[in-house]
């Protein structure tokens, strides 16, 4: 007979400290998904979802790399495996020049005209226009030199 698999997940030590904050982010995500998109452009309807996803990933990143009392590697890996954070975005934040990156689509040349990056990646003092919003995520500037 085959083994019966259960859906119980074993939470690592320290999970109870970060669980309330992650549950709050999940509630914000549900609100963003259910928010009305009447009168918005197609791309603007996704901006709140990108924002909450970025906040959740940044929270996990800050807990592991920036705080004085960091979480364990086991808990960090558990959060990434369960989908609480974006692994590839967090790996970009660790590289110089990408510390404030808002989303991965902003640095992919295939998503932009002329094979360049997004306009939000240009430092504010080099922009001709003062107010600029990224088409993909609504960011107003994520260049590390701002």
Q: What fraction strand? A: under 5%
Helix-and-strand structural type: mainly alpha
Number of helices: 4
Q: What order do the SSEs take from the amino end to the carboxyl end, as H and E? A: HHHH
* Whole-number tally of structural domains: 2
Residue stretches low in confidence (pLDDT < 50, at least 5 long) are none
Number of E-type strands: 0
| Overall residue-averaged pLDDT value | 85
The biggest sheet, with number of strands, parallel, antiparallel or mixed sense and barrel status, is:
none
- Radius of gyration from the CA trace? 18 Å
Note the gap between the termini.
Answer: 62 Å
The coarse silhouette is globular
Helix content: 25-40%
Give the structure's gist in a few sentences.
The protein has 146 residues and is mainly alpha-helical.
Structural features, described:
There is one protein chain. The protein has 2 domains: about 80 residues; about 50 residues, no CATH class. The protein contains 4 helices and no strands.
């Amino acid at each position: 007979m085959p083994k019966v698999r259960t859906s119980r997940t074993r939470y690592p030590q320290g999970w109870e400290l970060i669980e309330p904050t992650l549950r709050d982010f999940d509630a914000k995500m549900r609100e963003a998904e259910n928010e009305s998109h009447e009168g918005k452009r197609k791309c603007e309807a996704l901006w709140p979802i990108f924002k909450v996803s970025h906040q959740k990933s940044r929270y996990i990143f800050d807990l592991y790399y920036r705080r004085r009392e960091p979480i364990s590697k086991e808990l960090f890996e558990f959060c990434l495996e369960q989908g609480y954070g974006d692994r590839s975005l967090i790996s970009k934040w660790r590289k110089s020049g990408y510390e404030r990156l808002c989303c991965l689509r902003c640095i992919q040349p295939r998503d932009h005209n002329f094979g360049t990056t997004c306009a939000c990646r240009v430092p504010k003092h080099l922009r001709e226009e003062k107010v600029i919003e990224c088409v993909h995520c609504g960011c107003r500037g994520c260049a590390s030199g701002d």
